[in-house]
């Protein structure tokens, strides 16, 4: 295993400029992962509630500064508590079977990053940078994957051709290691993403189903719930959705 980092800052690059977009912290005891952001108080939160057996999108403003908590037990919540958005789902770590699972963490539509911390990028060995060729609006899907030595990850996702500006879509991915899990990210663009939205939007659910945000115009989007498949062969993981 590479160095273990319980805390990691994530940055997005714009040429020689680096803007912090979030931080990840993992608890060694129960695998819980906590996510904070310089824009936390501005986030529009999205999740789903079951209405007549069908998931319906619900939206809530941020309670202020805080963090998104994905507990080892599978419970996901915003702290300070937003009770309407507490979700019980796929575990990160099951102490009864001593097993760890792969699960979706959250999907984000970024607002334009502008925050540069007092402690600059690379001031910490644990800092991680998403490098961009073109600094432009994007959506990012995040997964938690139990750490495996020399793990390679293949991510496959399909889009309706009418939702894309170009084929293949402008996209890319990567991963950063925490203590017990690897956080895999996949960034992508669809139509109607010429402008950064004024507020970031974060969407999460039960960890089993994955919200995919698709632009529909005028800075709006729809959320599709996908059911991913996972196939692990030796140290090669394929995520398909």
Protein architecture, described:
The protein is built from no helices and 21 strands. The chain has 241 residues and is mainly beta. The chain has one domain (7-240). The chain has a 7-stranded mixed beta sheet, with no helix packed on it. A 7-stranded mixed beta sheet has the order 5-4-17-11-13-16-15, with no helix packed on it. Strand 18 and strand 19 form a beta hairpin. The protein is globular. The two termini are 28 Å apart. The model has no long low-confidence stretch (mean pLDDT 92).
How far from one another are the termini?
28 Å
> Which residues form runs of ≥5 with pLDDT under 50?
none
The run of helices and strands is EEEEEEEEEEEEEEEEEEEEE
Query: Rough shape?
Result: globular
Please count the beta strands (DSSP E, at least 2 residues each). Answer: 21
Quaternary structure of the protein: single chain
Average predicted confidence as pLDDT: 92
Rg over alpha carbons: 17 Å
Question: What proportion strand?
Answer: over 45%
Helix count equals 0
Total domain count: 1
Specify the biggest β-sheet.
7 strands, mixed
What structural class results from the helix and strand content? mainly beta
Helix content: under 10%
Helix and strand topology:
Blueprint: E1 7-14, E2 17-26, E3 33-36, E4 44-51, E5 54-61, E6 67-70, E7 75-79, E8 87-88, E9 93-94, E10 99-100, E11 103-109, E12 128-130, E13 139-146, E14 152-156, E15 171-177, E16 181-188, E17 201-203, E18 210-217, E19 220-226, E20 229-233, E21 236-240
Parallel strand pairs: 1-12, 4-17, 14-21
Antiparallel strand pairs: 1-2, 2-3, 3-6, 4-5, 6-7, 7-8, 9-10, 11-13, 11-17, 13-16, 15-16, 18-19, 20-21
């Amino acid at each position: 295993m590479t160095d273990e980092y319980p805390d990691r800052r994530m940055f997005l690059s714009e040429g020689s400029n680096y803007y912090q977009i979030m931080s990840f912290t993992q608890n060694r005891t129960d695998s819980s992962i906590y996510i904070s952001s310089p824009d936390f108080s501005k986030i529009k939160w999205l999740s789903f509630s079951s209405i007549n057996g069908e998931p319906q999108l619900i939206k809530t403003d941020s309670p202020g500064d805080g963090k998104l908590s994905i507990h080892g037990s599978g419970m996901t919540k915003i702290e300070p508590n937003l009770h309407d958005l507490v979700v019980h789902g796929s575990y990160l770590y099951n102490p009864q079977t001593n097993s760890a699972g792969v699960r979706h963490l959250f999907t984000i539509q970024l607002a334009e990053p502008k925050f540069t911390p007092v402690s600059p990028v690379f001031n910490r060995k644990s800092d991680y940078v998403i490098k961009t060729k073109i600094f432009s609006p994007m959506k990012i899907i995040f997964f938690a994957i139990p750490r495996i030595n020399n793990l390679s990850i293949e991510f496959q996702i399909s889009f309706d051709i009418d939702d894309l500006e170009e084929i293949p879509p402008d996209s890319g991915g990567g991963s950063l290691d925490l203590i017990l899990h690897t956080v895999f990210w996949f960034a992508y663009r669809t139509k109607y993403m010429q402008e950064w939205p004024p507020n970031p939007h974060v969407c999460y659910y039960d960890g089993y189903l994955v919200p995919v945000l698709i632009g529909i115009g005028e800075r709006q989007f729809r959320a599709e719930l996908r059911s991913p498949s996972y196939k692990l062969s030796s140290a090669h993981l394929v995520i398909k959705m």
